[in-house]
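Revision sheet: structure tokens.
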Amino acid sequence: MLLFLFPLFALGVRHWSSITFSLLILLGIIYCLVKQRKEPVQLHKYERLYLWFLVFYFAVFLISMLLNPFERFGDTRFGNEIRFILIIPLYFLLLRTQQAMRYLVHGSTAAIIIGFGFCIHELYIEGSNRFLGEYSKLFTGPVILLYLVVVLSYWIPQLSRNNLKLWFYLIILIVLATFSIVATEVRAAYIGYVGLSILFVVFYIRGWLRIASIIILVGFITIISFSSESINSRMTAAINELNNYIAMPDHTDPDNNAAGSSVGVRIEMWRAAPLFLRDYPFFGAGNGNYQKTVAIYVKQRKLHPAAKVFSHPHNVFVGATVDKGIFGLTATLLVFFFPLYVYIKTYRASPYSALTGIIYVTVMFVFSMNETAPFDKSNFVATYLVYALVIFQYHMQKIKTRLES
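Predicted:
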């Protein structure tokens, strides 16, 4: 039931994700203390590896935190990082149920509908010019897309010509989710939406319908792009900012504003990664030390001054590199991409559950290239981990069933 409740009001009720996540973790810990000892569950080798990679990720964080001084404990983001290891007991609890994915899908379905309601309220009753949600548009837009990934991946394999109710149900959900995502005006969510659409066309549609779907998809995306003035202007601005940044003769010149644009400053922050690797190669500069370290590089004329404005580099993998060094980057890549390896390697044993995982990781990768939020913000960390574990357990459940039959 908690898996159903987890996404339900995450977009509109403050602390909803953290509270339901904490309850899930508590249940997982209680289960491991009471049941797992008496009736241990046998793990597949891929499950053992995945859980050990989560342990490795947290261990690297601890070492990095101990090696690097910090001004305030809150700067270490300990509460976010510990979630990567606290989620492990929940996985053992998930192994005892056959319905975890189903509960999460139904919860995500309801969350899309409720999120649309919050969107309408913000836009037309409160008079907001975009859909922010309770926290930020950078959380709201991507998370709605993740809900859509799970819902479509679960129900599309069950579509048939005679099941008109399911067709209607999915079309309505797509329309509601699309409207909400566009209303957030988040570039990463829009790009992820396009990527999701392409993946579904490629993986789920065959023959002449695939060509027809691609034509319809291109037309649909074009209509959205030109009908939404905000999306059109933001995408055009991004291209122009990239061209202006590339044309800069000196990227560290404080008088050149091209490096201070939305795209330019991201590239400047990413350029900090090799500098951090040179000075803090193994365990990074520590969580919370990015901004003051970049300020030193700016003073040395190695980066543009715009790079020191932000407290994080707006990229999960660059963030892992600067905060935790090469070990942190390795741990992040393992946690992020090991499930993708499993989905691809075991694709033939359970194609549809594997596709769910492949699409989920791909869409998360799009978000992670533009923001550190999936591994940095508490609500996004909780959402990423719960969905990642449920999808992984769902696929492994299908694999083990296939091996036993």
